[in-house]
Amino acid sequence: MVRKFVLAALLAIMALIVPLQSGVQAGEPAEELYGMVVFLKGSEFFNWCYAGFKDAAATVGSHVKTEYLGPADWDASGEAKAVEQLIAMRARGIAVTAGDADTLVGAINRSIDSKIPCLTFDSDSPKSRRLLFVGTDSYQSGYEAGLIIAQLLGDKAKVGISLIPGLDSITHRVAGFEAALKEKAPGAKVIAKVNDEGDINKAEQVLTAMLQANPEINAIFCGHGNPATGAMKAVINVGRDSGDSKVHVMAYSIDVPILEAVDNDELVGTVAQYPYLMGVMSFLNLYSAAHPTQFDNPKYPGFGMVPTANIDTGVRVLMKGDPLLDYLKNPPKM
Question: 98: which of 125, 147, 235, 287 fits an S-S bond (Cβ 3.0–4.6 Å)?
Answer without folding.
Answer: 125
